Amino acid sequence: MFYRPHEGHGLPHNPMNAVISPRPIGWISTRGEAGDENLAPYSFFNAVAYTPPQVVFASIGAKPDRDGTKDSLSNIRQTGVFCVNIVGTQMQEAMNASSGSYPRGTDEFDRAGLGREDCETIPCSRVSGAPAALECRLTQIVTLKGAANFLTIGEVVGVHLRDDCLVDGIFDVTRYQPLSRLGYQDYASVTEVFAMPRPD
């Protein structure tokens, strides 16, 4: 099968997300200028640099009460900071509960029954008990082609690692089993890993 995206695929559901998978989930927590907190998962998310460490996530679509974007990006535009919480498989139900299109001002921490802790370097909350959390300062928002598509780039200025995930100085992902996004409504959990030393 071959198709040109602008002509459509003719399938019951768009296969694009299934093709590009698995994708890590950035569980983005933000706080607006008025103190309202938001928590939402983004599967268009990744790390893009080591020095300084930088991450990106893309917000697609808009809410009618947020002037052409979503709560996360609106809060980041106001404050210039955000926190990326890493999702372990045991938090899958809470992550899903936080993904709804709720009215502005809804606190997804409360809605999903999650505890919160203050970040160390930025005025924002992070998910209590998350295996890792990356405190980020905004460096750039890039407007992408298409309606309400924005790429947010942040520099990581603080890193939280859950102690039980550190084994002999290595951050062991099998201790929390990262949740990843596949296509459609599907997810996967990382339960085992293998090493492949590079040829050089």
Question: What structural keywords apply?
Answer:
200 residues, Pnp Oxidase, Chain A, three-stranded antiparallel sheet, 12% helix, globular, oxidoreductase activity, acting on the CH-NH group of donors, NAD or NADP as acceptor, Flavin reductase family protein, FMN binding, Flavin_Rdtase-like_dom, Split_barrel_FMN-bd
CATH superfamily: Electron Transport, Fmn-binding Protein, Chain A
Tell me, briefly, the overall form: globular
C-alpha end-to-end distance? 38 Å
Under CATH, the topology is which?
Answer: Pnp Oxidase, Chain A
Q: For the CA atoms, what is the radius of gyration?
A: 17 Å
CATH class: Mainly Beta
Per DSSP, what share of the residues sits in E-state strands of 2 or more residues? 35-45%
List unreliable stretches of 5+ residues.
Answer: none
Q: Describe it for me?
A:
- It comes from Mesobaculum littorinae.
- This is Flavin reductase family protein.
- Pfam families: Flavin_Reduct.
- One of its GO terms (molecular function) is FMN binding.
- InterPro entries: Flavin_Rdtase-like_dom, Split_barrel_FMN-bd.
- The longest helix is centred in the middle third of the chain and has 9 residues.
- The mean pLDDT is 95.
- The chain has a single domain, classed as Electron Transport, Fmn-binding Protein, Chain A (Pnp Oxidase, Chain A, Roll), CATH 2.30.110.10.
- The relative contact order is 0.20.
- It is mainly β.
